Amino acid sequence: MSPILPKSDAADLVVAARIRRGLSWSQIADQIGAPLVWCTAALLGQHPMSREQATAVCALLELDETVAESLQLQPSRGSDPALLTDPTVYRLMEAMSVYGPALKELIHEEFGDGIMSAINFKIDIARRPDPDGDRVVVTLDGKFLDYRW
Question: In the Enzyme Commission scheme, what number(s) does this protein have (predicted)?
Fold first, then answer.
């Protein structure tokens, strides 16, 4: 019996197959009927996929059962510290560093003592045309969870 393919290796194979077949993340998400950002994160190893989703993705990308098996595993969520130096990821972290305390205060003022869930959570990305250059719109949509004593 061989070991299960690590999720990071499966992600590398998914990325290579996607590029070689000229498919966008959006096309893959549409094919399996999943939200774009969630699907992309799952294929990069951050969420487990159902057997049906993993099988459909692997059929689309012509990847074998070892990849489908890996895509169904529970992940160890988080990021490789090296990824945090990527300019796009770093700028997102910088935005949270600058605006996080203000968002925390505003959440508490509006909702009370609690947090925004990152488990009961949706996230989306969109492009908004602007005369000064297109804008990136990131929407974070999390359930409010009040602290209960």
Answer: 4.2.1.104
